[in-house]
Description:
Number of helices of chain A: 4
Oligomer: heterodimer
Largest sheet of chain B: 8 strands, mixed
Low-confidence stretches of chain B: 94-103
CATH architecture of the largest domain in chain B: Alpha-Beta Barrel
Radius of gyration of chain A: 12 Å
Shape of chain A: globular
Number of strands of chain B: 27
Mean pLDDT of chain B: 88
Radius of gyration of chain B: 32 Å
CATH topology of chain A: Rossmann fold
CATH superfamily of the largest domain in chain B: Phosphoenolpyruvate-binding domains
CATH class of chain A: Alpha Beta
Structural class of chain B: alpha/beta
Order of helices and strands of chain A: EHEEHEEHH
Strand order of the largest sheet of chain A: 3-2-1-4-5
Mean pLDDT of chain A: 93
Largest sheet of chain A: 5 strands, mixed
Amino acid sequence: MKIVAVTACPTGIAHTYMAAEQLEKSARAAGHQIKVETQGAMGIENELEAKEIAEADVVLLAVDIEVEQRERFEGKRIVEVRVAEAIKNPKAVLERLHA
Amino acid sequence: MPEVEFQCPLPNGLHARPASTLAERVARFGSAVELTNQRSGACANARSVLEMVALGVKLGDRCRLSFAGADADEAARSLRTFVDEELPVCDEALPAENTTSAACELPRGLRASCSRWYTGTVVCPGIGEGRVVVVGGARVPPALLALPAVAAAQERERFASATASVRAALETRLASRPAAVEEGILHAHLSIVRDVGMTQRVAAGIAAGRSAIQAVAESSSHFADLMRGAESAYVRERAIDIEDIAFQIIEALHGSRLRSPQLDLAEDSVVVAESLTPRQFLALEKQFLKALVLEHTGGTSHAVILARSFGIPTLTGVADVRAHVTDGGGAVVDAHLGIVIPDPAAAVRRFYAREQQTLRRREERLARFTGLPARTRDAQVLEVAANVATLEELGPAFASGADGIGLFRTEMLFMDREAPPSEEEQFAIYLQAARAAQGRTVIVRTFDVGGDKPVPYLDLAAEKNPFLGRRGVRVYPGQAQLFRTQLRAILRASAFGVIWMMVPMVNSLEELRWVKARIAEARAELDASGRRYDPALRVGVMLEIPSAVFGICDLASEADFFSIGTNDLLQYFMAVDREDAGVAGLASARHPSFLRLLSKIVADARAAGRWVGMCGEMTRSPRNLPLLVGLGLDEISTAAPEIPGQKAAIANLSFAACRELLERALACGTTAQVEELVAHFREQGAAQNLLESEFVCMDSDSRSKEEAIQELVSALYVAGRTEQPRALEDAIWAREAVYSTGLGFGFAIPHCKSDAVCANSIAVLRLAQPIEWGSMDGEPVRCVILLAMRASDQEGAHMKVFSRLARRLMHEEFRERMLAARDRGDVLSCLTQELELPPHRIG
Lengths: 99, 843
C-alpha cells in the first residue's frame, strides 16, 4: 500500500517527530510504502508532492492541530488519528488504513 | 432595670470603630451600662471598647444593653435611638477579609501541601526557614515582671502618670498631622490607652497586690487573648495594638526604653515585626537571622537597605503578619515568590530544602566569577562595586567579589542617636573602611539627611514635601560644624587608602563650589596641625537631580567624577513619589526617556573626561544589565549579594551587542517596547551547547512529576541557562496540560517554547525510583529528558537536534543505552553520538 501521512502536534518539538518515526518504522516493517510530512516548529519538512499524493492509496493524518494545506488532499481517502495513537500503537493505526 | 434589645446591623460586626461610637454615647450618662451578646451569653462594660470588641458581635447577633443608675431611663431612650438610627450607618465598609491568599499562585510542588500563606513584596531575594521571633510586641523582660509591688497607692500613681505620658506622646504625634494610615492607628491606640475596661482591670490588679507593670502585662494578655479568640480576623489583629500600647506603658513605668530580649537570637530564626529600626536590625545575630518579614510597606527604609546588603531574605508589606504567625512556631519565607508560610508541613519543608540546595549550587557556581574583574566577551571591563551603610557590611561585600565600594552611605552614623558622631568616631570608621578595601576605591558619600531620613538633634523643621526640601548638600550650610567634622574625618582617613568623596543632592555649580571651599578650609586646618590626608582626594557629584544632569559640563570644572543615583533621579525626573504605591509603577527605569537621560549623562561625562558610575536600584535587576553595559559606564554599584550574579552575567555579554540593544531601546516610543526588547535580548554571538554535563542529573531522588520538573529546571538555573525558573516551569506545565509527555517505555520528554530560558537546552534526569507521569502506556517513568527551546529563537540546527532526539526515542536500542548509562559521561556520550552533537569535552 502507498501511504502519505502528515504529523503535527501542538508545540511541534517532539511528538510530531516521534509519530513520524513510528509510522515510518512500522509501515516499512509491514511492507508498505510511506512518506511522512512533518508540520512542526521548523515548518513543513519532507513535504508531500502533488504526484505522491495523487498516487497514494490513502492519506493518514496523525494530528492534534489543524493541518496546513489540507486542500491538497481533497477527494482522497483520509484517515485521521491523534498523534498519541500513532506513537503508542502504530500497527493498529496502519491496520485501520485497510478498510 | 431598663433594657434595649437590638440585632447587630453591621456587616463586619461590632469592631473597634462602631464600638468606640457606642462607648462615646454611653459616656454621656452616669449609669452603668452592660452589653450582652445573647448568642454567646457573654457581657461587657459598654464603656470599654476592648471588652465590647472582645464579645465578637457579628452581623445579626441579638444583643442587649442593660442600664442601672440614676439616669438609666434617659440613657436607655438615647441608646434606643442610637442603635436604631446611628449604629447601622456608623461604619464604613472594611476591606474584605483576606482568608484565602489566592493572590499569588504557588509553585506546582507546593500546591498539594501548602494551605496557608501570606504575600508581601520581595526586597531581598532568598529562602529562609526558622523559628518565628516576633519583635516589638509586649514581651516584657521577666526580670521586670519579677519586681515586687510597692504600696498600692504608689503603684496606682505610677500607672496614672505612665498612661498620661503615653497618651501625651500619641496626642503629640497626632497633632503633627501624620499620614492618614498612621492617623487611624494612632486613634486606635489612643482609644486603648483611654479604655475603661483596661484601666479598671489594671486598678483591680494593683488592688490585689500586683505591681503596676505586672498588672498592665496581665491586662494586656487578658484582652489580647480575648481578641485572638475572636472569629473576625480584623478583631484578632487588634491584639497586637493592645500589646504595643501595653509595652509602651510598661516602658514608661520602667522609665527607659526596653531592649527587646527577642533581639537575642539563639537558633535559626525568622524575624517578624511591624518595622525595625536600623539599630534593632544590627543587634540581631546575623548567623541566626534566616529571614525578615515586615508589615511595613516600602523598600527603602534603612532596616531594609541593611537587610539587603547582608543578603537576608526579606519581605515587606505583609499585611498583619504578626496576627497570622505563631511566635515560637516555625515558618518558611520564600523571598523569590514573596510569601511567608507559617507552620510548614513536612512536604513544604522538603520542597524548600531542595530549593535551597539549588540556590547553594548556583552560588557556588557563581563564586568562580567573584575574584575576577567583570569583563564582557569583547573585553570591556565594568567595575562591579557594593553599596554599604555600615562597617559590618564591608566583609560580606568584598567576599562577594566587590571591586570597590561604590556608595558608602554615612547618614546611618548620624541617625538613631542623641548626638552627632565625633570626628574621631567617624575617622575610625572611614579608616577601617579604607583598610578593609585593601587598595580598592571606597566612595564615601557625605551625610544625606532630611526628607525621609530625619535626625533628631539636627532640629530640621518639618516640611510639607521633604523630598523637595532640605536634603543632602542643602542641609550643610546650616550645619557647618557638623559638615566640617565629617570632611576632616574623611580627609584624614584618605591618607590610609583610596577614598573618594561624593556629595549628594547637588543642583548647581555654586553648591559644589561651596563644598570645595569647605574642603579647602579643612585641608588648611589639617595642614596647620600636621595631620595627613590624600592631597589628590577625588571629589564627585551624585547625580540625582535632573538640573545637575544638564549641568555636567559645568560641574565637571569642580567634580572629579559622577555617580548616578537612580532612585532619586528617577523620582525627580518622572515626578513620581517612589514611596507612593499608587504611582510607583509609573517610574520605570526602562522608560525610554530615562534611558535617554542616562545616555546623555554618560556622553557628557565622557566629553568632560570624567569617570561615571551608577549606584541605586536600577543596578539590581539582571534585566537591566545589558542596558547598563551598553551605556558604557565605568562602574555599577549594587547590593553585595547581587555581585557574583552580575559578574557572571557580564562575562556572557558583549559590549557591542549591548550597545546595539541600548540604541534600539533609545529609539523606542514606550516602556513596553523597551521591556519587549530587553526580554527577548539574546546575544547572537554567544553560541552555547544544547547539552552540558551539568544538565545531566543521575540517581535523582525526585518523587513526583512536580519534583522531577523542578529538578530539571533547577539544573538549568544553577548553570545560568534561566533566570526565571518559575516561568520556565510554568511553560513546561502549560505544555503538560495539553497531554502528558510521558511517551511510554519509561521515558518522558517534557518540553516548551519559552524565552524564560536564555539558550536552547536539553537536560536529563535519571530517576532512582520510577515515578508516575500519566504516560501513554501507563508505565512509570525512569528517564526524563527536558527540551527547552526559546520562543523567539527556533534556530534550525537546534530544532533538528530536538526532532532527531524525538525520533531516536522511538528506537529501543537508544532507550536501552540511555537507561544503561552508568554516569553523566555515559549519558553525554550517548546523546552526543546519537544526536550528532558537536564533539563535547567530557569531564
